[in-house]
Amino acid sequence: MHRTFEDLVAEGASVPTEGWDFSWFQGRATEARPSWGYATSMAARLGRASAVLDIQTGGGEVLDFALAQAPKRPLLAVATEGWPPNAAKATALLRPRGVAVVAVSEDAPLPFADGAFDLVVSRHPVRPHWDEIARVLQPSGTYFAQHVGPASVFELVEHFLGPQPDGVRGGRHPERERADAEAAGLDVVDLRAERLRMEFHDIGAVVHFLRKVVWMVPGFTVEAYEPQLRALHRRIQDEGPFVAHSTRHLFDARKPENHRL
Predict the structure, then answer these.
(1) Which residue range or ranges hold the Methyltransferase type domain (predicted)?
(2) Are the C-beta atoms of residues 35 and 194 closer than 8 Å to each other?
(3) Helix/strand/coil (H/E/C) assignment for every residue in 115-152
C-alpha cells in the first residue's frame, strides 16, 4: 500500500534521534557494512586492554556491544559525549557495565591525564583531535577507530544542497588524516577505506536520517526543504529505492615508546 508523502514525512519527523541505534530503519533503508567489522574487532581489542577511552560514544551502543563480546573486560573504561541527550542515553546504557560517561564537547580538550589509556577507540568522530588522542595514550598505546570518509552519502547531500565544491567533497580524506595523525607523532599501522552502498526505500527514512545525522544537510527541516523532499518522494515512487554510497575508513595508529609532545 502506498502511503502519502505527508504521512511518511510526519513519521520520519517524529522518531527520536538520540543515540546511534539505527534499528528503526529496518525495512526502510539499508547500508552495507565495512568488511573489517569494527564493533567485533573493537571487542577483541578491549579484551587485551587495561584502560580504554571511547571518544564521542553517541548513545554508547557500539561500546556496549563490544564490551558484551569482549573475552575480558578492561579494568577501566571511560566514554565521552558532547550532546546532552546522547550523554544521558549513554550513561543509562553503560553505567551497568561500569563505564563512566563524561560530558565533553567535541572541540574541547580531553579531561584526562597524559598517558591515561592504552587503548582509545571511536566510531565516526566528528573530527579527530590528533594531538589530544596522542597525549592521553600511553607509550605503545593504540588508537583504533572507524571514521567517516570523503563525500559520504553525497548523492543525498547534493540532492538537497546542489553540487558541492571539491574542497567540501574532499574533506575527511583518509590520507589527509594519516598525515595529521603522523604530525601528532602517531605511527599509522593500518589504514583501510571502503565505499558502501546505501538504499533509502521511502521519504520518511530520508527525513529521519537527515534529522539524525545533522551534519549532512546543516539546518535541515522539513519546511525548509519540502520541494526537494517532494521531488525525491516522487523519484522513489517511480524508480524504486534512492541509492547513495557511504565512505568509511579504519584507523589503527600507535603511539611510539619514545613519543614526545
Answers:
(1) 53-144
(2) yes
(3) CCEEEEEEECCCCCCHHHHHHHEEEEEEEEEEEECCCC
Alpha carbon distance 193, 251 (integer Å): 9
What pTM value is reported for the model?
Answer: 0.91
**3 state DSSP class of 13:** helix
User: For strand 242-254 and strand 187-200, is the pairing parallel, antiparallel, or unpaired?
Assistant: antiparallel
CB 147 within 8 A of CB 128: yes
138 contacts 119 by C-beta, under 8 angstroms: no
Residues in contact with 172: Cβ distance below 8 Å, sequence separation at least 6, in sequence order: 147, 148, 149, 150, 152, 247
**Quick one: which of 34, 38, 31, 71 has its CA closest to 54?**
38
How do residues 47-98 score in pLDDT, each as one tens digit? 999 999 999 999 999 999 999 999 999 999 999 999 999 999 999 999 999 9
Per the CB < 8 A criterion, the answer to whether 131 and 110 are in contact is: no
| Helices (runs of H) and strands (runs of E) counted in the chain | 10, 8
Q: Which domains does the chain have, with CATH numbers?
A: 5-254 (3.40.50.150)
β-bridge pairing 137-148 and 242-254: antiparallel
CA nearest neighbour of 132 among 64, 180, 189, 74: 180
The string over 130-148, giving b where at least 16 C-beta atoms fall within 10 Å of a residue's C-beta and e elsewhere, is bebbbbbbbeebbbbbbbb
Residues 6 or more apart from 103 whose CB is under 8 A from it?
80, 81, 82, 84, 87
**Residue 22 to residue 65: CA distance in whole angstroms:** 14
CB 80 within 8 A of CB 122: no
Question: Could you give the CA distance from residue 19 to residue 138 in angstroms, rounded to a whole number?
Answer: 29
Closest CA to 214 of 145, 146, 170, 157: 157
